[in-house]
UniProtKB/TrEMBL annotation, chain B:
GO terms for molecular function: ATP binding; ATP hydrolysis activity. The keyword Transmembrane helix does not apply. Residues 12-260 form the ABC transporter domain. This is ABC transporter ATP-binding protein. The lineage of its organism: Bacteria, Pseudomonadati, Pseudomonadota, Alphaproteobacteria, Rhodobacterales. It comes from the Bacteria.
Length: 403, 265
């Protein structure tokens, strides 16, 4: 017999599993929906029974983080995958989104607190408004940057964007008035966290409150996974729609052969900027989702390794130009990354034998693994796990060009 | 401009165009015009500035001085996509297909003013986009039929042979319904049979669709058969212009091609 806490967890797991089913299962829309419904129901009941509570919580927080990375990878895909921008400044847009949402949703510190913690403003807006503002502001920053920077191509663009992301990071590190740099910005509100508090939110019907009662604030991540999956699903659907359209076709044409696209009447500069701004918006949204998850953010979260290059590896492993691939890559690389931590932990006696200080440098071994992975992808599977689809436009009638 | 005497302005007029590349004068006061409904040949020795002239007309380079008009409208220094929207299409010496897209979508891409090119229409007006995509697809299939590439519609354009890519280039210009097409060596690297086919297509488009052509070509047989008039360029200037047989027998043309000692004789 399931305990009530597991039952509550089952209820919370259902929606993310259902969305995963919709994404991963084959077949036409209706068939897929029914299959996903069944599979999600089974899995949501089975998981709390099979796994112990700690493991399940770990798995859920793993998926939440991977989901945030998946949003970032989608953002990068709309720049690199669709239009060929070598943006090495993902971290910049990510951080702009995170700090923007934090500023819009937190409370301005007052009284004694104001002496320790400073920020430009704190508007106490609701979570979703913060997410939207994060996207908009990242898009504005992306637009302003794109005007000078998109004159560059390939490695020159990479260096310029890398530099800009570092500038943004240093701004958040050094400008205390803006977002309390270099101290963390704390107290970023979690949406609906009253669900897991005692007493629960006052507006909650008693039945629901009683059902959720056994869950503690530590189980909040189960709810946040729902938030992340919904936002990820929305971003995926919206991006998928416009990638597989005449707009996406134009971007692929520009990516392949810019001069010819221009001579086919396409305003190359404008379209390149559009795709850059769309990507920036998505990265900004990811930043917001991240900020409200970790509650406290500072500049150090947005270094190039963690917030740019790992996302590149994710996209390249999953398949550049393929939105599903971007999501798959994010989960796969985050799995390798997290798995490597366990592996290195369990191998630490062996590492000790090689050299005394090797176990303490385990973190670098993880990066080495990711680098190795990148090397293998480039050598053996440059198109990624899921290849870019041959046909671009889904708006074209179905009776031609089957793929 | 010739509007004063009531005649229509030429479909293309280039006036006193100059272009320097770091002291090398590639185009040196070039003036020429192309009359509507002609297939005008543009020949000249290597380095005469023919392709540079195309690049100046289509906005890839900005001229240092001089002007370019189409149907009396000044299009000097307009960017390439704006030149396209004035009814001028161009192919490249080395085909520049979009290799990771299908042949069909290479053509569909070219159709001007697509609703789905604005990404918000894909969210907000999917049915309008879908209806237009159907029209464009049908048009592209017709064009493919015309150039005999129907069987390759769903193949990656990058996989086509050199000659097929040349056909695709010509097909591309047909999608745009242009007034003027600039062809840069359409027959280079193309076998005899395919070349005849190309020539037929060009002549058909001129006759039936009223498209004007300006084509750079080194294959004299093709030029003599297809073009009238022929413009000869040398050292960045128009050397002469005339009917094919006049050009063939002109000593200055021979001199430009072969060097002074032959022309002087």
């Amino acid at each position: 017999m399931m305990q009530q806490i597991d039952l509550a967890r089952t209820a919370l797991l259902f929606l993310p599993l259902f969305l995963l089913g919709l994404l991963a299962l084959p077949g036409r829309a209706t068939r897929r929906a029914i299959l996903a419904l069944i599979a999600a129901a089974v899995a949501a009941f089975a998981l709390p029974l099979i796994l112990d509570r700690g493991t399940l919580t770990y798995l859920v927080s793993f998926s939440t983080m991977a989901g945030i990375y998946a949003i970032l990878a989608l953002g990068l895909n709309s720049q690199w995958g669709l239009a060929g921008h070598v943006n090495f400044g993902v971290a910049g847009f990510f951080s702009v989104g995170a700090f923007t949402s934090a500023l819009f949703t937190t409370t301005m510190p007052e009284g004694a607190l104001a002496a320790y913690s400073q920020q430009a403003f704190g508007l106490q807006w609701p979570f979703l408004a913060g997410v939207v503002m994060a996207g908009i502001l990242a898009a504005i920053v992306g637009f302003l940057i794109s005007i000078p920077v998109l004159r560059l191509r390939t490695d020159f663009l990479a260096i310029a964007t890398l530099g800009i992301a570092e500038v943004i990071r240093f701004i958040f590190q050094n400008e205390r008035w803006l977002a309390n740099g270099p101290q963390p910005m704390r107290g970023i509100p979690r949406p609906l966290d009253c669900l897991f508090k005692d007493p629960a939110c006052s507006w909650l019907p008693t039945g629901v409150a009683d059902f959720l009662a056994p869950l503690s604030p530590r189980d909040y991540v189960f709810f946040y996974l729902i938030v992340v999956s919904l936002i990820l699903a929305l971003v995926f659907i919206a991006l998928e729609r416009i990638s597989r359209s005449p707009w996406g076709r134009m971007l692929r044409a520009i990516r392949d052969e810019e001069n010819s696209a221009a001579m086919n009447g396409k305003n190359v500069t404008r379209r390149r900027i559009e795709s850059f701004v769309v990507g920036s918006f998505i990265m900004g949204v990811a930043g917001a989702v991240y900020a409200h998850y970790v509650v406290s953010i500072d500049y150090s979260h947005f270094n190039p390794l963690f917030a740019t290059f790992i996302i590149w590896v994710m996209l390249m492993l999953g398949g550049s130009g393929n939105n599903k691939g971007a999501i798959l890559g994010a989960f796969a690389v985050w799995g390798v990354w997290s798995g490597a931590a366990f592996m290195i932990d369990s191998a630490s006696p062996a590492l000790q034998l090689i050299s005394d200080d090797l176990p303490s440098r385990g973190a670098y071994l993880r990066w080495m693994l990711v680098a190795l992975l990148l090397g293998l992808i480039v050598l053996y599977r440059p198109q990624g796990l899921i290849k870019e689809r041959k046909r671009v436009s889904d708006f074209m009638p179905d009776d031609t060009n089957k793929d | 401009m010739s509007e004063t005497n009531g005649a229509r302005p030429p479909v293309l007029e280039v006036r006193d165009l100059v272009k320097d590349f770091d002291g090398l004068r590639a185009i040196d006061g070039c003036s020429l015009s192309v009359q509507e409904g002609t297939i005008t040949g543009l020949i000249g020795p290597n380095g005469a500035g023919k392709t540079t002239l195309f690049n100046l007309i289509t906005g890839y380079f900005k001229p240092d001085s001089g002007r370019v008009f189409t149907n009396g409208e000044d299009i000097t220094s307009l960017p390439p996509h704006a030149v396209f929207h004035r009814g001028i299409c161009r192919t490249f010496q080395i085909p520049r297909e979009h290799g990771t897209m299908t042949v069909l979508e290479n053509l569909m891409l070219v159709a001007p003013n697509q609703k789905g090119e604005h990404f918000w229409n894909c969210w907000l007006r999917p049915n309008a986009v879908r209806a237009q995509e159907r029209e464009i697809r049908d048009q592209a299939m017709e064009v493919l039929e015309f150039v005999n590439l129907t069987h390759l519609a769903t193949e990656y354009a990058g996989r086509l042979s050199g000659g097929q890519k040349k056909l695709l280039e010509l097909a591309r210009t047909m999608m745009a319904r242009p007034r003027l097409v600039l062809l840069d060596e359409p027959a280079a690297g193309v076998n005899k049979t395919l070349m005849n086919k190309l020539a037929e297509n060009i002549e058909f488009l001129r006759r039936e669709r009223g498209v004007t052509f300006l084509l750079i070509e080194h294959d004299m047989e093709l030029v003599m058969e297809l073009c009238d008039p022929v413009i000869v360029m040398s050292e960045g200037r128009r050397l002469m212009e005339g009917r094919p047989e006049e050009v063939r027998n002109d000593p200055t043309v021979l001199e430009a091609y072969l060097g002074g000692q032959y022309g002087a004789a």
